[in-house]
Design a protein that fits this description.
Blueprint (H helix, E strand, L loop, with lengths): L5 H9 L1 E9 L5 E9 L9 H10 L3 H16 L9 E6 L13 H8 L7 E6 L7 H13 L3 E7 L5 H7 L4 E4 L1 H4 L6 H16 L3 E5 L4 H10 L3 E3 L18 H4 L6 H13 L6 E2 L4 H10 L5 E5 L5 E6 H8 L4 H6 L17 E3 L4 H9 L6 E6 L2 E7 H18 L9 H14 L3 E9 L1 H8 L1 H18 L5 E6 L2 E7 L6 H18 L6 H6 L1 E5 L5 E5 L2 E9 L8 H17 L4 E5 L1
Parallel strand pairs: 2-3, 3-4, 4-5, 5-6, 6-7, 7-8, 9-10, 12-13, 20-21
Antiparallel strand pairs: 1-2, 1-8, 10-11, 13-14, 15-17, 15-20, 16-17, 18-19
Length: 585
């Protein structure tokens, strides 16, 4: 390979590398970093794409790219704990067109730094026009055969994404930012991303939500089953390697964990079966020994050196090898490793312990022949769930929720409300807890009947969902009493929460008027008997609320104490002009 002209060596010396972390979407533990080129603007190029166009035109694209790889890998080795990270490196689709393109160069660089092949992830983007699809897939297969991981970047933004998946299966798919921007407010984007995740999981690929910038976008990506997240919400690209963290606590924060998911996890953990895995690269004999040691074992999970699941080997598939004409020589050959058995390895859905049970079952159901799912925590294998066990878990969860949910509104009842309050006090989280009580509900219920009373209760429950985001815990104490809780953070300040609750109170007061006859609505009251049997006027329905700001230094320690406080303060709320009382506890 000819050395670069000094003019282009100047390019190389000016350029620098920034890294952006890619983290587990549930735990916040770092999975890898993407290398991003910086400095092309100082060389007079409007964009990085223009810079690589110039290299391509000068027929030095591959030569220069190899130098960049070495520069990137060298800086990657300065990141704390780099040995356990993946390095995502962007490839230009046109490399294969270069006359000096050759095998083995990246391997030599990695060997020089003592790095394993599997830590390198080559990203091929479909954002650029793919003129020759055969060349593109050939480039993917080339790096797959060399032992590297391959990712499709900007998936869904080009015209060839699904064709690429048909011709070859990448290890990782990165969903383009276009589909994630505002996904929390766009049902069509959410549907498309859900289908991409399902397809990727079915094919054995992992999914990275790329370019996530807000908490709400992150929550939707979690909900639809994305495995990893990258974007400004996690961390902006940085030129300083020391700024890359091992864990991003804002991703794993309890603020982003639905309380119900914790209950799902407890149900799953009770049933999780740990099947001893085999590591990619171990001998076929080791695999056979595993089956011999455990009589009831019918499948073995296959993991890589970092304990990430890559598939399973079924006992019946192994037998087909043993009893083949070459089975004996295969077993006796201790140098044979599991890479030879990749042909016999089957894909299986991989789910995260933090996923909702419904998502686990949904991903499992899409896989026609899977006996169950492999479960990971922080991307690492922790056990196996069979189809039967998943059905049992769903049944148990349904029974628990059915016992506690209010039969009318389907909101969590007193058990889950008290559990939520207890967690707030135990963890001393800065939060807001609210108690709602309708005004003049009994006269309305007596006058218009209990069916209309139920309709009013359902109206309020529906408004809670419409006015308040999913970060709020919404509960139904019973009758016309409701509960609300939310953890305070940058997105939900105390002032903003109070405004949103005020909007809920106002919206209910306005909408509930439609549940009255015209004459009562125009009069602004109903005339009915009071408890003493005398006719009197009762104002139209409204709702009063006690808003309790629970600070970290609160002296309240139990849900009983809080409920007692609510019962005292609701009288003051009913007297207030806006029907709201705010207290600090």
């Amino acid at each position: 390979m000819e050395p670069l002209h000094p003019f282009y060596l100047h390019y190389f010396n000016v350029l620098d590398v920034a890294f952006q972390p890619i983290v587990d979407i549930h735990s916040g533990i770092i999975f890898g970093v993407e290398a991003l080129l910086r400095g092309t603007d100082r060389l007079g190029f409007e964009s990085i794409h223009d810079f690589f166009d110039r290299l391509y035109e000068e027929n030095i694209l591959y030569t220069f790219d190899l130098l960049l790889r070495e520069k990137v890998i060298e800086k990657f080795c300065t990141i704390p704990n780099f040995q356990n990270l993946k390095l995502f490196y962007n490839l230009d689709n046109r490399l294969l067109e270069m006359a000096d393109f050759a095998k083995g160069n990246t391997s030599r660089i990695l060997n020089r730094f003592g790095l394993d092949h599997k830590m390198m992830v080559f990203e091929l983007s479909e954002r650029n026009e793919i003129v020759n699809l055969d060349n593109f897939t050939r480039l993917m297969r080339h790096y797959e055969q060399e032992g590297f991981c391959v990712a499709i970047d900007d998936f869904g933004i080009g015209h060839s994404g699904y064709k690429l998946l048909y011709h070859c299966t990448p290890n990782i798919i990165k969903i383009d930012r276009f589909f994630l921007s505002g996904i929390d407010q766009d049902a069509k984007k959410k549907l498309l991303v859900r289908h991409i995740v399902q397809l990727a999981t079915l094919m054995g690929s992992r999914v990275i939500a790329e370019g996530v910038e807000t908490q709400r976008e992150l929550l939707v990506c979690k909900e639809v089953g994305c495995h990893f997240v990258q974007g400004y919400f996690v961390q902006r690209p940085t030129l300083e390697s020391c700024e890359i963290l091992q864990k991003y606590t804002e991703i794993s924060s309890d603020l982003l964990v639905d309380k119900r998911l914790k209950n799902d996890q407890n149900i799953i953990l009770k049933r999780l079966e740990y099947l001893s895995p085999i590591v990619m690269g171990e001998s076929v004999e080791s695999l056979i020994d595993l089956f011999k040691k455990e009589d009831e074992l019918f499948l073995v999970p296959v993991v890589n050196s970092q304990n990430h699941p890559v598939g399973i080997v079924h006992e019946h598939r192994l037998k087909s090898i043993i009893y083949s004409p070459y089975g004996r020589s295969l077993i006796q050959n201790r140098s044979s490793d599991l890479s030879f058995l990749e042909t016999y390895m089957e894909s299986i859905p991989v789910v995260d312990l933090a996923m909702p049970l419904e998502t686990m079952v949904e991903l499992f159901s899409l896989h026609e022949n899977a006996p169950g799912v492999l479960v990971v925590e922080s991307s690492k294998y922790i056990g196996y769930l069979s189809a039967r066990v998943m059905i049992e878990a769903i049944h148990e969860r349904s029974l628990i929720r059915a016992r506690d949910e209010n039969p009318l509104t389907r909101l969590p009842g007193n058990f889950m409300i008290n559990e939520y309050i207890t967690d707030i006090f135990e963890t001393k989280k800065d939060s807001v807890l609210c108690y709602f009580d309708f005004d003049h509900f009994k006269p309305y219920n007596d006058y218009y009947g209990f069916r209309n009373g139920d309709r009013v209760i359902l109206l309020f429950a529906d408004l809670m969902h419409k006015v308040l985001s999913q970060e709020y815990f919404k509960g139904h104490i019973g009758g016309d009493d409701f509960f609300l809780g939310v953890i305070l953070n940058e997105s939900h300040t105390f002032e903003k929460v109070c405004r949103e609750i005020g909007r809920l109170v106002t919206k209910f007061t306005e909408d509930v008027r439609e549940f009255y006859d015209v004459k009562d609505r125009d009069r602004g009251c109903i005339i009915a008997e009071d408890r003493f049997g005398e006719q009197r006027e009762f104002k139209l329905l409204s709702v009063s609320v006690v808003i309790a700001h629970v600070g970290m230094e609160t002296t309240i320690r139990s849900s009983e104490q809080l409920h007692h406080l609510f019962s005292l303060e609701k009288k003051e709320a009913k007297k207030a002009p806006n029907h709201i009382v705010i207290i600090n506890v």
